[in-house]
Amino acid sequence: MRTVTRIGQLDATIKVQKIEDIRKTKVQQILERARELLGKLINEELPDPKELLLYLEYSHNMKTFN
Fold this sequence. Notes:
Structural class: mainly alpha
Mean pLDDT: 81
Order of helices and strands: EEHH
Number of strands: 2
Low-confidence stretches: none
Strand order of the largest sheet: 1-2
Largest sheet: 2 strands, antiparallel
Strand content: 5-15%
Shape: elongated
Number of helices: 2
Distance between the termini: 37 Å
Helix content: 55-70%
């Protein structure tokens, strides 16, 4: 946290009303989005497991290549 003592030529006073850890909220948002995507994937189109495996292998190989 940074402090501000002056704004321009005037003295400044700041009062902290609330300090909040938003990491838990962000994790909950990510999990909610993952559930939505998984539900959409299952309801609309479930990929062929062989295609999914090939994609994952390709993706892994690209990461290790770079």
